Amino acid sequence: MAIGAPLAGWLSGLEEVSDPVFAQRMLGDGVAIDPTGDCLYAPCDGEVTVLQPSGHAITILAGEGAEILMHIGLDTVAMNGQGFGPCVQVGDRVRKGDPLIRFDLDAVVCGAPSAVTPVVLLETPGYTLARTRDDGLVVPGEAIFTLEPRAVAETAREPSTGETVERSVVVPLVHGIHARPAARIRDAVTCYRAEVSIAKASQTASVRSPVGLLALGIRFGDEITLSAQGEQAEDAVATLAALIESGMGEKGHAPAPVTTLTAKQALTALPTDGKLPGVTAAPGLSVGHARRFKLAEIEVDPAATSVEEEQARLDAARSTLAARLEREVQHAHGPQRAIVEAHRAMLDDAGLLGAAAAAIRGGASAGHGWREAIRPQAEALRASGDARLAERADDLLDLERRILLILAGREEAPLALPPQTILLAQDLLPSQLMALDPANVVGICVERGGPTSHVAILAASMGLPTLVALGPVLGQIEEGTALILDAGAAQLHVAPDAKALDAAQQTVAERAARRAAAQAAADKTCHMADGTRIEVFANLGSRADAELAVANGAEGSGLLRTEFLFLDRDTAPSVDEQAADYQAIADVLAGRPLIVRLLDIGGDKPAPYLPIPTEENPALGLRGIRVGFAHPQLLEDQIRAILKVQPIGQCRIMVPMVACVDELRRVRTVLDRLRAEMGITDIVELGVMVETPAAAVTADLLAAEADFLSIGTNDLTQYALAMDRGNAAVAGAIDGLHPAVLRMIGETARGANRHGRWTGVCGGLASDPLAVPILIGLGVTELSATPAIVPEIKALVSSLTFEDTRALAVAALACATAADVRKLAREFTA
Questions:
Q1: What angle in degrees, to the nearest 10, is found between the helix axes of 307-331 and 350-361?
Q2: What is the rounded distance in angstroms from the CA atom of residue 350 to the CA atom of residue 767?
Q3: Hey, which of 48, 375, 395, 821 has its CA 20 to 30 A from 257?
Q4: Cβ neighbours for 601, distance < 8 A, ≥ 6 positions apart
């Protein structure tokens, strides 16, 4: 029988575990996994026989008496249930891959000596364990060892004789009898000729069975009965009583009552001021009431008919969903259309189809086969160490859910939400967000997620203020609680007083009036109040984005993300295919400038036709222009396609992830050679995207040879602060208005100005009304925002004077923290 990895992480032998109970195999043989995921899955089909009250350990009966213990982290019993959310209970039957326990990995890392998770075959007379793979990274479901039957010598045990000796003991162990004490109890009496057991209430277990002791659920303060029969029964009971009464190094006072996480419970208490920090996914301000959304797990029928019938069921479900996605594509625009198209491509992924077919051939039903194909891939993405890849896991889970609903003959029940709803969710899938009625939902708050997830992109396109990565504390908020969601300030105010509510509602009304006025004036050329010209462009990812940008008064595009042409396909697009797409977008812009960013792809955004190996840290590896240099034909084809767009010069070329002048020179050499080959004499501007601290501090050197500089503030911020913006543990501290980031932006603008070049911003700060005046004061003359917010940015710029913004920028550079900068900016715009 094969046992799969119950979670993603680094596999090693038990001897690497720092706890002697596991390292010395006192409970049995097995392996250890240092986790990178946040969910423990069933390693095989079986029955849940033990689930520790604190939710940190579970035992599965795999069959024929073989029991698998999984213990999340070391000494995690001391966490008293905080951070663990069991999905099952004792007696449940589970299939391989079913979720058993969801846990907060950050909480385990911070609250326990180690997150290393032992996976142990508890001592079972009829089985031995054989490892099936070496140490290294594993994904959920990957075989890690097999259970092999072994002959058991029949040893006649003499029946115990003599009187039964009993003694009652009150358990002083602060965490009760968990795995380590259970192992020590067994070892303490093995040398005695006696049969020893422990009873709690009406349940009894032999001390020779640690799992039996765990099943008793003995806690601090419980009264238990020690019982022994045999020649040395009295000595055995005395030894055992002394051991337990000693506390085994865990003597103490009763811990706080155990709370096992459900979707409505949280790891930490709400702050006393009621203000929760999060990560801005879509800016904006809204006032409403909390309405909770829980993503219910879909029950899958495990019963399978024939392989042919189950495969036919899955194929039919896929065809049904493909037709639905095709209809959705026809009616979607902008980011929604791009995301639906990505889902449609994933539905035909050969790897997923092959894995599902293999599972069905192995006896799985259509639903289980699809789930077994999806879940390991989703976990692998989440365990990749890269935020953008982790966020794509939600897309896979969305596909899983939609197929399972079709197989079950069900429709996803629409979310019937009252007006002024601020939706609170642990997770939200793209299809569910697209189904929301924006007339009733005024904001979204999500425990997990990241600012570049598809949910974040959709929320921004829908104009819904959204915070992500708020953490499980969100679960403490009661249904119907009044909320102020200030996504621009990355804050959720819970149960504000009447004065705060009135002020927020007045601000919302004022902003709505300003938006209406801004929309009415959106087609005007953008000048500051003193006449200074500031260009307001839009970031684009498709032709539909361009249509929305023009309708909102964008004066051009400061960033065309070309990845939409290269991802979710088996081969690179041809020159003609690329040229046609670029031309279509240029035509919509009708002569307005179009800045095309060269392909920004790599380990964090993989393409199957590019042989880029998995990297330990994709953000610092082969990505951006480095991929173009590694695949020169790809780079040449893209530049050739851009040069085909008419009229010549409307398209400007921008080089991503530049770190030194030499990289710009190499691209310039290719551009000049291709212009000569194609007989193009017109100037085609070549600029640099400033995303690395290296580019920012050498901006004067780059500007000497580049035609323009455009700052990608999202990546520049995370590189400058050494914080991954998709990591919930640090994302709350990431802010593009950090003084260090602002100083790099100022240095970039000064370096560009020294050579008469303009500086733009195409990152998230260009869409942040608090940041815009500071950016202009630092010397930025072009802002490329999300299409929906262009009218508001243009209206804001028209109310400013350069003298005022310059004074604001000087003051901002003197601030000590990002919070100080935001306070200053709010006072300026008030």
A1: 150
A2: 38
A3: 48
A4: 563, 566, 567, 607, 610, 623, 627
